[in-house]
Amino acid sequence: MVAPFPFCANRGSPINVLNKIKILLKNDYYIDLICYPEGENIERKHLNIYRPKRLFWSKTPIGISKNKIFYNCLLLLKAIKLLKKHNYDVIHGHEIDGVVISIIAKKFLKKDIPIIYDMHSLPIERVGKIFNLIQHFAIKNSNLIMGISPNFGKYCLGKFSFVFDVPIKEKENINEEKVVEIREKFGTPIVFYMGTIESYQGFIQLDKVWDHSVGKLMCYTNADIEFENAINIKKEGYSLSDAMVASDVLISPRQYGSNIPLKIYPYMRSGKPIVATDIPAHSILTDNVNCVKTKPDPLSIMDGIKGVLESEQLKRKIGDGAKKTYEQMYNMREYERRVIDAYKQIEASS
């Protein structure tokens, strides 16, 4: 398994990898994982983690960087070394980098091993159309594409399997006293966002124009910046779980894209009302059933939040609807079934 990013870390792609590792180990698979030197080490029976030595003082940022390019070269060398030594049944490459490393290593050694492309995002949506050729190469040379969004399927030449993300924890650990403390200390209503603050996420734009009459804008993020209006509850020493439970509305203000944000699943599971932008990334949500959808601009998002906060009936309706959707369609049992079915499909065709 090739994971070209820090592992394990508290963000989407590393959590995706960790969840799949847990399922595969549970079902008696043996895994050799190669990943970046950064991240928290985990120990599991039948799991070996290989990391290159850390060669940069700075952390590897999200997106293209000199660190990432250099580490990917080291991962390729390690992949070739492991493929020479072991007879693997499948190579599982995460993201475009991981699957390209897998394909090159396989072709270099002329190995006949099926490849799974774990597609967390569409590179052409975020980094330019030049990556269209790379993506086509990756899809063409993969035996199966395991994607986190059903929107990816149209690009995948009939080799697609939708495997949604799941939260890293099966249930949240809540400290009720901390929940009450958050609401009393910061005031209500609380509008909450969790995740990174890259521009496409839309949170920075919302923070800049936030109207305090709407409520308290709060986030939980690893980003080390000062917000103009938002409170980073992580810096205040509170847990993500307690902050989410203390909130009145959960938001996903993403501007564009088709990959479903990991945050949507704990949002739905919480039973809290969700306000999300009306873009393909939020396609598993249905307006006025399990969320309120808005145009992807800050003023429209704030109008949507106001509408939810002003109607207790709407809050209950979409909050209950979100939890019901999660429990029926996106639970851990269904996740495990989809992961294992994908592997069985590969095994049957090899």
Task: Explain what this protein looks like in three dimensions.
By secondary structure, this protein is α/β, with parallel strands linked by helices. The protein has 2 domains: 2-166 and 332-349, Rossmann fold (3-Layer(aba) Sandwich), CATH 3.40.50; 176-329, 3-Layer(aba) Sandwich (Rossmann fold), CATH 3.40.50.2000. The chain has helices at 12-26, 66-85, 95-109, 123-126, 131-140, 176-186, 203-208, 240-246, 264-270, 298-309, 312-329, 332-349, and strands spanning 2-3, 31-35, 47-50, 91-94, 115-119, 144-147, 160-162, 190-194, 216-220, 231-232, 249-252, 274-277, 292-294.
Kindly summarize this structure in a few lines:
The protein has 350 residues and is an alpha/beta fold. Helix 3 links the parallel strand 4 and strand 5. Helix 2 crosses helix 3.
CATH class of the largest domain: Alpha Beta
- Biggest sheet layout: 6 strands, parallel
The geometry reads as globular
Physical arrangement of strands within the biggest beta sheet: 10-9-8-11-12-13
Q: How many beta-strand segments?
A: 13
Count of spatially separate domains: 2
Helix-strand string:
EHEEHEHEHHEEHEHEEHEHEEHHH
Structural class: alpha/beta
- Topology-level CATH name of the largest domain: Rossmann fold
State the fourth-level CATH superfamily of the largest domain: Glycogen Phosphorylase B
